[in-house]
Amino acid sequence: MVAIWNDIVPSARAAFYDWHIHEHIPERVAIPGFRRGARYVAARKVTAPQYFTLYEAATPEVLRGLDYAARLNAPTPATRQVTAQFRDTVRAMACVVESHGPGRGGMLLTLRFDAPDQATGPLRALLAAAAAAPRVTGAHLCRTDTEGSGAATAESRGRTDLRAPPGWFVLVEATDAAPLARVLPAAELAAAGAAPGVVRGLYRLEYRRDAPGAPPDGV
Asked: What is the pTM (predicted TM-score) of this model?
């Protein structure tokens, strides 16, 4: 998957919505091997950045492949114009280490953090417990491909809004916000090995587009 958190200059918000819905997400999900794209918006004022976008791909090789690289190295004029207005952008190419749940939820909790390799087992156990909480529909543990995330492309060249990605992130989906307030508190993540400074954000689904013939949901 490719996970992107970003803010945008308020005056460019209308252009962002038009570009994202009608050009950018359709362009991405048309890449062979991409399955779907979805954009979320912050559900609370304390959540930052304001937007979260998720692209799912069939395999890690799709994200390292020539088709995706070709798009990253040939940004459209609208892509250049809109992304120039982005602020505090975090982009993480990642593999799904563990995934549980029956399907999608309208609310999404994202948790960004760093952790050593030996934390994988405890994090898997925490994820399984989170997925079993009432009204939680999915929980996914993701490990960032740091090298791939930081690769220089024409689309990223010259941008000053890009921030370093987290080593790990968790996505937890639910029917509403209430159950997400109780899952994976900072103390549990710290006990599992997560470094201090976990960034927690609550988002609401705004838009989703599936690739033609995409298989059923499942990160």
From this structure: 0.96
